[in-house]
Amino acid sequence: MRLDPASIFILFLARLIEIYYWLIIVRAILSWFIRDPRDKVYRFLYGITEPVLAPIRRILPDMGLDLSPLIAFFILQVLKRLLLSLL
Questions:
Q1: Given pLDDT bands bounded at 50, 70 and 90, which one contains residue 64?
Q2: Helical spans, DSSP H, in the chain
Q3: CA-based Rg of the chain, rounded to a whole angstrom?
Q4: pLDDT, tens digit (0-9, with 9 covering 90-100), for 2-43
Q5: Confidence (pTM)
Q6: Could you give phi then psi for residue 33, rounded to 5 degrees?
Q7: What's the rounded Cα separation, in Å, for the pair 83 and 77?
Q8: How wide is the angle at C-alpha 8 spanned by C-alphas 2 and 11, nearest 5°?
């Protein structure tokens, strides 16, 4: 693998996607346990992940179960694979 500036940037973006993936997982898990919307950790995770999850939630029909994290995981994985295919 070559390590020119473009490749390093692509790897950096792929790593950011992985981190974002984990932030969504942590938010989903914490939503089961933290009921206080003023909790600092949950508010941080909410603020970071909601810009991606909210548009997905608006598109999906209301089924009583929030599937937006699952759809976001799929989209993030596709983006990551597309980025890595550029290497």
A1: confident
A2: 5-33, 40-59, 68-85
A3: 15
A4: 689 999 999 999 999 999 999 999 999 998 888 787 889 999
A5: 0.85
A6: -110, -35
A7: 10
A8: 105
Residue type, 4: D
Contact 45, 23 (CB under 8 A): yes
3-state secondary structure of 4: coil
Q: What is residue 36's predicted lDDT score, i.e. its pLDDT?
A: 83
CA distances from 19 to 16, 26, 43, 47 (A): 5, 11, 17, 15
Query: Minimal CA–CA distance to 49: which of 9, 84, 80, 17?
Result: 17
Residue in the block written with tokens 């976001």? 72
The predicted structure's pLDDT at residue 31: 86
d(CA 49, CA 69): 9
